[in-house]
Amino acid sequence: MDKDIIISIRVSYSKSDKLIVGLDAFSNLHVAMYTGQGSYDSRPIERFVDEIRDTVRQLYKAGQLISDGTTLSSHGTVVLKRLKHIED
After folding, report:
1. How many angstroms separate the Cα of 41 from the Cα of each of 2, 13, 81?
2. Sign of the alpha-carbon torsion through 40, 42, 45, 51
3. 19 exposed, middle or buried (CB, 10 Å; 0-12, 13-18, 19+)?
4. Contact predicate 68/83, CB 8 Å
């Protein structure tokens, strides 16, 4: 897997514009971005370019992205379980 993708899709805690990977209630992968005041805006992984989409899917299937036990609230009805990379 390309480490540059992992660096650009950070799954560690951050209150910056770094991206976070999460799962919705139906186990669909999303990429979320912190938007301020404790909120996140998310998009389904299908909306991202092949390199990001495929890398995130491969990491999740390989068990490299695991739940960290927290949830993200977003604008709208999507609630995500936050995932972290096991090397973080």
Report:
1. 25, 15, 13
2. negative
3. buried
4. yes
Ordered strands of the 65-73 beta sheet: 39-44, 29-36, 19-23, 79-85, 65-73
Whether the model clears a pTM of 0.90, i.e. scores above it, the answer is no
The two tokens of residue 79 are: 């609630």
3-state secondary structure (DSSP) of residue 78: coil
pLDDT digits (tens, 9 = 90+) for 21-70: 889 889 999 988 777 776 777 889 998 888 888 888 988 999 988 888 88
Ramachandran region of residue 76, left (φ > 0), alpha (ψ -120 to 50) or beta?
Answer: left
* Distance of alpha carbon 16 from alpha carbon 3, whole angstroms: 20
79 or 77: which carries more pLDDT confidence?
A: 79
